Amino acid sequence: MPSLGADMEAGTLVAWRKRPGERVTRGEIVAELDTDKGVIEVESFHDGVIETLLVAEGERVPVGTPLARIQAPGAPPPPGAPPPPGAAAPSVAGAPSVAGAPSPAAAPSAAAAPSAAAAPRSSPAARRLARELGVDLGAVRGTGPGGVITHDDVAAVRRDGAPGATPPAPARVPPAAPPPGASPTPGERMRRAIAAAMERSSREVPHYHVSLTIDARAATELVARENESRPIERRLVVGALLLRAVAAALRRFPEMNARWEDGRVVPAAEVHLGVAIALRDGGLLVPAIEHADRLGLDATMEALADLTRRARSGELRSGDLSRGTLTVTSLGERGVDAVAGLVYPPQVALVGFGRVAPRPWVDEAGGLCVRPVLTITLAADHRASDGHRGGLFLTEIARGLKQPETIR
Amino acid sequence: MTREALRAAIDAALRSVAPESDPARLADDADLRETLDLDSMDFLSFVVALHRATGVDIPERDYARLATLEGAVQYLGPRVPSG
Questions:
Q1: Is B37 close to A280, i.e. CB distance below 8 A?
Q2: pTM of structure
Q3: What is the number of CB-based contacts under 8 A between chain A and chain B?
Q4: Catalytic site residue A272?
Q5: 3-state SS of chain B: helix, strand, coil percent to 5?
Q6: ipTM here
């Protein structure tokens, strides 16, 4: 059972997408999980053949529980009895994120539409199929754990009745379904997950905040200039350049790209940039751009577009939500001048961007002018770094934005 | 493209980036970004969807003219390629 956040304790296996004997590749979806934060897909972290499913559909198990055993390619056939956990071919779906990946920022979405408070709880596969078939999820009765609408439920509507019609009585009884009216809505569950993460941050992390205000003209002009000559599909948003600047700066500040663990700062081996994406009806998702420091501006833009689209449509995967090593939040488009955030444990830093707005500015020659001005903030764990290093980190981000050709 | 067909294309483009929205309920002069809480990535996706549906090339400097449903109709109408 992968951890999707420091506050997550358990999850329910909604459905297996693979069966014993089937081959899986790294990144392939093997199961769907219902957590306190929503229904998400779990991908395999290894290549191989599914040997044993260790958790039954509908079963609720703690974080860290092995879900399945995957036989590595070329490994000898398994003995009659299943090997103990941690033995040969231990590729357990989801488990690597428990062991290695820092927690994500906040709560994954449960609902296809961001109107989480009213939307039925459904799996990503069910949402995709419903869209393809034109089925109204509001009219589908969920037979998964806790009444979750599964892929099979949507398929049954298509098979047994017109799209949008209520399907016949389910063949399976939802295990441990709460009584009507007793269970929190998806929106409430997401709010609780965010609350748990932020309570932990506020309680355990001694924060410091530093900020830096810069002339962002070079950055905005680069984006405008690029967009002038690009076809619509390849245009950029300023947010992609901001992410690029953070990722590039992190190379020189490993203590910001880290987690606090057992009384020491542990730098992450990779830079996976968490991107805070607000849901319109409340709630927050923080999927990560993998290896963000290795991506150029165009690739960063593509990754941001992909994450945004999948966050909006409820198609994020467990890996998206468990890999983040530092979080970036940008609230400028909501009119915010500056962000004083909280880090997401066990991450140790969060970078915030305010709006780019025209302001009076004193240029290098001492003259007064009007420039697009941006305030960058850092919220950091004082156990892992000091304000001096935090200031240098912000300065490095600013350097990239002032000379955007050097980081594109 | 008729006005009705154009409006349908705009509605579909909006729903593609804001699935929970009901464009039929939007006032013609409502600010789309504000009313639907669209960020710049959403708005770019909206522009891309409009381009794919209508064939109209929309430069970034003209984004502001698509701020409302009526603005989008007025902007796109004369520019939709004929035939």
A1: yes
A2: 0.75
A3: 46
A4: no
A5: 65, 0, 35
A6: 0.90
